[in-house]
Structure prediction request, 318 residues.
Amino acid sequence: MRSILAALCVVAAGMPLFAAAEPVDPAVAEAIRRGDDALARADAARDVAATMEIYADDVVFFPAGEEPMYGKAAVRRWIAHRASDRKAAREQFEAATLDVCGDLAVETGTVAAEEAGAGGALATRRTPRIAVWKRQADGTWKIGREMRGGEAPSTPPAGALPAPANAAAAPIVAPTPAAPPAAPAAVPEPVRLAPPTDVIAIPDPRGLSEGFVRTIGDRLRSRAAKIRSLQSAGGSGEALRAARSHAARELQTTIRDVGWIDVARFGVATSCDAAFIVVESGDAALVRSAVPWMKDLETNPEGAECYARALEAYRKLK
Prediction:
């Protein structure tokens, strides 16, 4: 690990190749520990939006048995798919080592997830983990690279970093005695799970002509306006249900082709029309998949209200 960090130091700070890693600043260690805690809470709560707050925009993620994922959009899709099938009741990150060099920090350890097994009994599953944290321009630390391996031993890593003073002293579950070593077995091929059926596959946004952007915007505006008109007229019957269903189907077809209706390409009004259709559809799979893509509305004064409404619908699914 020291050799990896030394190489990172060369890239990040122009230091000599064999320079030693810096003594760990307690403030940096605490910042990374808080990031791990926030990530664990968001992961266990299946809160995709909160999970993505811990990752840098240029993150590269290496999940066990799968191809690497480059960029926040790709990682967001993977986490959204994974979140819908998660069974963990609680999760925590157990850090074994932390080395810091300038604006980079390398953390090794395990991820401990408390899951319900047969008969409802809780058991802890641990997987190895390496995370490379990057200090951002605002001074915060976010994960730039992360690799998670296969299942690890059930006991915490030796020499794990001490918990902060205000953390609970007890681990998730008491470690069990190690089992006798088993005879070597053939390593099976990685199992690739099919994406769950209760999410909508949303690809990365692609470049579009101005005419195509206007056409999509006009169509969504028309569908949203029809729903609002029926609502204003007190419609609550078949006509309103049909309008919502038609708009949702058309939106799904569009986003599967061009990606989410984001602010950068379509503007706030069109993005809010899309968010409105998602909420009005009542389609859990569409809500679960689309809302994590709406973060660009949250910080926009014109889009904050429609984002808040979409986020409320998302939280009600849990």
